[in-house]
Structures are given as structure tokens and as C-alpha cells.
Amino acid sequence: MDQDVDVQEQLFHNTVREWIISILLFAVLYVSSYIVICYFRRKSDQDEMYTDDEDGMVYRITLWLCTFTLASSVAAVLLLPISIISNEILIHYPKSYYIQWLNQSLIHGLWNHVFLFSNVALFIMMPFAYFFMESEGFTGSKKGIMGRVKETFIVLLLLAILVCGIAWVASALIDQDNSSRQQLFDVWNFYLPYLYSCISLLGSLLLLVCTPIGFTTIFTVFGQLVIKPKFLRDINEDLLAVKMEEDSLQRKLKRTSQGINKVNEVGDLHAQLKDIQKERLKLEKQKKASTFQRNVLYPILLLLLLTLTSVSVLMVAFNTLLLVFGEKELPLGATEAVIGIRSFSTLGPFGGAIEIVIILYFMLASVTGFYSIPIFSRLKPQKDDTSVTTIIGNCVIILGLSSALPVLSRTLGITYFDLLGDFGRIDWLGNFKIILGYNLIFATSTAVCLFTKFTKTMRDEIVNRLGMALSREKRSWSASNGWSAANTPEKDD
Q1: Could you tell me the CA-to-CA distances from 86 to 14, 46, 93, 314, 360 in Å, in that order?
Q2: Cα distances (Å, whole numbers) of residue 340 to 76, 82, 233
Q3: Is the pTM of the predicted complex or chain greater than 0.85?
């Protein structure tokens, strides 16, 4: 009897400890996400547009929902890194008293909580936040926040019925089995995982498009943020020449502005002056930088980016070969991982660290690639100038990308850590053709994007040289024909 009481007491303490750790972790992510959203949100939204108490409450509730969604997105990104680190710690310190709180139950609980929060945020909170912001209450009803809440719930109910109908029809078209269609009425156990499976597939396809583009865009952004070395140039001489050119343009602009009917010329001068001022600021920044920043930091970071990108492509190519030869099981067929028994990387802790860095690099590349696509570039948040609806859209996109990141990492073979909880039971992960095609398309598109990026200058130069050679050949051919025609004697009639 006493032994049963001790076991129950131990289980109770373990459960309380896991909940405390999960709540503390999510609180840190929530506060961090709130700071990020406040950094981007438009200040006038709260100061000017929402002076009324009702509108202010709607604004704050929407902001809290967006913060919850962003925190869930960050938690989804950190799932695999936290799991890999925990597994390596438990392998090397299995009996340490100070890490008894770090166990398999805690890791499984984190995966289940993140899956639940992602579903709630994606299917309930974000639609509610958007419709809540746009609602005004039904016509003729009593004004107030409850009227807006009622309108929002009615719209959400209609939207849920529409989405359920579409899902049911899609299941009927794809699978003719009546039992599978009846399962759609089981909302919690079948419908939400089924719908989330579709959303994860869309998120994975979005990652498939954005990540290769992001690999190339990162190099462009890196070149803009980090000072490039100037080994064969004197910055002082370049800065002096730019300042002299700027002064000359300013004097010319002053003289031209006093004239009449020279609007176009003044506009051209303003554009040239703006470019020169940007060049001057860039050179002044390079002059203020230390020798290490000018000559050492750029090559090191460039080499690091090249290494990460090359290793990522090689890992995907190797994973594709393993799939082709049947040496690797599909993610859906994998059994749930047991934490602290064996390392999931051949290189041990070093390999785990590489996997974590590459996973985070993939997330950075996908976000960078998404905002570099012209269609979605308008959604890019701006400091102190991002509307609430744009914040809602960005939170949905980030949640979709981050929720698909564990699936992407496991599908591409970046890590061999098995997907836990409902993440490992997504339907399409058991389709060999989809997994193999995904790997092939990702490796091919990444290689093509990188080849296009790094050979652009060479290709442009080759095209210019060929164009110049063809124009010279054409001129010489025209000249020779003209000379021949001039020297050909005319025949008498």
C-alpha cells in the first residue's frame, strides 16, 4: 500500500514539474514574442485610431492572440533542437541528480503541447483575431464588444462549416471508403489531424519554394550587412573623391534650379546626388570599421554560409540515395524515439550540434526566401509601421513555416530524430513517392538557385562579350559589303 502511494506521489510530482517547466518556457517565448510584435506594430494604431475603450480592447485582444501564435511558432522551431540537446545530455549524464527533471515524458509533453497550440492558433485564434478586428456588430443590435464577439463567432461557425464540407468532399473524391468519410465527423481524433496534415503539406510545399530562394538571398543580405574587404583600394581616396563629386553635384543643382524649364534635369541631378550620398555613407561606415571587420569578418562569415549551404545540400542528396536504395525508413513508419538511449547522429554531440545549426539555418533561409518573393514582399513587416492585419498575416505564415520545419527536417534527412506525438502521424509522410520527389526537387532547386546566383556575373559578362563580338562582326561585314559595292564597276547597258 505504501509503495503504491509512493509511486502515485512520484507521478504527481513529475506531472507538476513538467507543467511548471512547460509554463515557464512558454512564458519566456510569449514575452519575447510580445516584444517582437511591439517592435513592428504601427504606433498610431493604439495612440490615434483606437482611442475608444471598445476599440482599444479589441486591439489588445487581437495583439494577445498574435503573440500567442508567434510564441507557438517559435516553440515549433525549437522542438527538434531542444529534443536533440536533451537526448545528448541524457546519454552523457544518465544518472545525474541535477537533470532528473529532463526526461522522456517532458519531451513528449512539449511535442504534444506544441501540436495542440499550433492547431488552436491556426484554426481558431487567428481567424477569430482577423474577423474580430473587422467586425462591427450586427445591424440593429446593441453596440458594444459583445456584439462584435457574437458576429465573430457566427462568421467563424459558417467558416468552419464551409471548411468541414470542403474536407468531406475532398475525402470522398480521394478515398471512396465510407468509413473514412464517417471518421471526418470525429472532429478531435480525426478531423483536426487530417486538416493539419493538409496544412503541413502546404507548409512543406511553401518551404520547398522559399528555402532554396532563401539560400541565395541570404548571401545578398549578408553582403549588404557585412562590410566587404577592400584590399586594393584606399578608402580615404575613394571617400575624398565621392565628397568632391557630391559638392560638384550640389553646386550644379543650385545653378540648375535657378533656371527655367529644366525640371527633368533637376530630377536627374537629385537622383545622382542621392546615389552619391549613399555611397559616401557606405564609405564612411567602412572607414569607421576596425581592421578585423574590414578584412577578416567578411571572409569568415562567407565561408561559414558556404559551408552550411554545401553541407545541407549534401545531406539531402545522401538522404535521397538512402531512400532510393531502401536503406532508410519513411518518417511515418518510424517508431517513437526513446530519449537518452542512443545518439541519433553518427558523430555524436558534434553531429547533433551540426544538425541544430542546419535546422535553424533552414528556418532563417525559408523566412528570408519568403519575403524576397515579389508576391509576398508586401507582407514584410516594417519597424513601427506594420498594421494589425499585416501582423495577423505574418503570424499565420510564420506558424505555417515553423510547424512544417520538423517535418521538413525529418523528410530531408537533416536529422534522424523521430517525429514525436501527432507530428509523426501525418498521412502523407508514409507515401514513398511524395517523400522521394520532395527530396529530389529540393536538392535540384537548391543546386539550380545557387548555380544561378554565383554564375550570374560570369554569365552576364559572357553575354556582353558575345554581344560586342557579334556587333563588331556585323559592322565589319557591313563595311566590307559597302567597300565591295563601291569598288564594283557598273556594267554598261
Answers
A1: 17, 42, 10, 26, 17
A2: 21, 13, 55
A3: no
What is the spatial distance between Cα 484 and Cα 487, in angstroms, rounded to a whole number?
Answer: 5
CB 203 within 8 Å of CB 396: no
β-bridge mates for residue 287, sequence order: none
Q: What single string gives the DSSP state of each residue in 205-221?
A: HHHHHHHHHHHHHHHHH
How far apart, in Å, are the Cα atoms of 381 and each of 115, 212, 386, 453?
Answer: 26, 22, 6, 26
The alpha carbon of residue 345 and the mean position of all alpha carbons in its chain are separated, in whole angstroms, by 25
Please state the length of the chain. 493
CA separation for the pair 189, 176 (Å, rounded):
20
Give the three cell numbers for residue 146.
459583445
Phi and psi for 41 in degrees, rounded to 5? -65, 155
Closest Cα to residue 393, out of 409, 371, 413? Answer: 371
What three-state secondary structure class fits 386? strand
Residue 38 is placed in which grid cell?
511591439
Strands annotated E in 253-304: none
Q: Which amino acid is at 492?
A: D
| Tens place of pLDDT per residue across the chain (493 aa) | 556 557 777 787 778 888 888 899 999 999 999 999 988 887 765 554 455 577 778 888 888 999 999 999 999 899 889 888 888 888 888 777 778 788 888 888 888 888 888 888 888 888 888 888 887 777 766 777 777 888 888 888 888 788 777 766 766 666 555 555 555 555 555 556 666 667 777 888 888 888 888 888 887 777 666 655 555 455 666 667 777 777 777 777 777 665 544 555 666 667 777 777 777 777 666 666 666 666 667 778 788 888 888 888 888 888 888 888 877 777 664 555 677 777 777 777 888 888 889 899 888 988 888 888 888 888 888 887 888 888 998 999 998 888 888 888 888 888 877 777 666 667 677 777 888 888 888 888 888 887 777 776 666 667 777 777 777 666 666 666 655 555 555 554 4
Residues 195, 202: Cα–Cα separation, whole Å: 11
How far, in Å, CA of 31 to CA of 461, rounded? 51
The DSSP letter of residue 41 is B
Question: Residues near 285 by Cβ (< 8 Å), separated by ≥ 6?
Answer: 227
**Residues 56/61/62/68 CA torsion (nearest 10 deg):** 150
Largest CA distance in the chain: 132
CA 64/CA 475 separation, integer angstroms: 70
On the 0-12 / 13-18 / 19+ scale of CB atoms within 10 A, 94 is exposed
DSSP, res 339: T
Its sign, for the CA torsion 165, 170, 175, 180, is negative
Alpha-carbon distance of 151 to 171, in angstroms, equals: 30
